[in-house]
Design goal:
104 residues; globular; 6 helices; mainly alpha; single chain
């Protein structure tokens, strides 16, 4: 999936890929932040004990095409400890403290 994302970014399809994720500021998120977000979602899934659920869903709920895998992942990620704003350096630059959020 990472290779697929990289190839699309190389082709200039950044917006197409980012639009799959339901985060209002995803288009403005720097590409390196987006990559870190994707990697962290996968790593945290393993780290916090949902590896089996992730793999079972990946193997049983979707097809084999990269498009299907990425579409599935974009819907799966927000439900599994993945708030893209925690990775968006544009958001993290904000100095306003919002007590309802973990980061700011």
């Amino acid at each position: 999936m990472i290779d697929y994302i990289d190839k699309n970014f190389d082709k200039g399809n950044n917006t197409l890929i980012k639009n799959l994720f339901e985060y209002e500021n995803m288009i403005n998120m720097p590409d390196f932040d987006f990559h870190f977000f994707i990697a962290d979602v996968i790593v945290e899934t393993v780290q916090y004990g949902d590896r089996t659920g992730f793999c079972n869903s990946l193997m049983n709920e979707i097809g084999d095409s990269n498009d299907e895998i990425l579409k599935w992942f974009s819907k799966w990620a927000p439900d599994h400890r993945a708030d893209p704003s925690f990775y968006d350096s544009n958001v993290l630059k904000e100095t306003k403290i919002v007590f309802s959020r973990n980061m700011r």
